[in-house]
Design a protein that fits this description.
Blueprint (H helix, E strand, L loop, with lengths): L1 E5 L16 E5 L6 E2 L6 E2 L8 E4 L2 H10 L3 E5 L22
Parallel strand pairs: 1-6
Antiparallel strand pairs: 1-2, 2-5, 3-4
């Protein structure tokens, strides 16, 4: 079975990074998603798609995958690019609109 291990990105609506500290393990989809004909809801027969596990470190996630004979596809997080600006930069002469 194949799993995906990644570190979630920061929420665009918040300035904090509380949800980005843990590693997440999700199973790859085993069946396609189908729309219900009566209600229009999206569903699937694959119940593993509902499972999401959180780990403190990448090593814990890898150890769990190895213990349960899962093939882990690891996605390393991209480094953040910080652009430090001050309020005065909004009124600078060299500002590009």
């Amino acid at each position: 079975m194949k799993v995906r291990v990644y570190k979630p990105a920061k929420n665009a609506m918040q300035s904090g990074q509380a949800a980005t500290k843990h590693w997440v393990m999700e199973f790859e989809p085993g069946a396609k998603k189908v729309a219900d004909q009566l209600m229009g809801w999206i569903g699937s027969t694959d119940t593993r798609g509902q499972v999401r596990m959180y780990f403190e470190t990448l090593e814990e996630a890898q150890a769990f995958a190895a213990k349960h004979k899962l093939t882990a596809d690891i996605e390393m997080p991209k480094p953040r690019k910080m652009q430090i600006k001050t309020y005065a930069d909004n009124f600078a002469f060299k500002r590009v609109i």
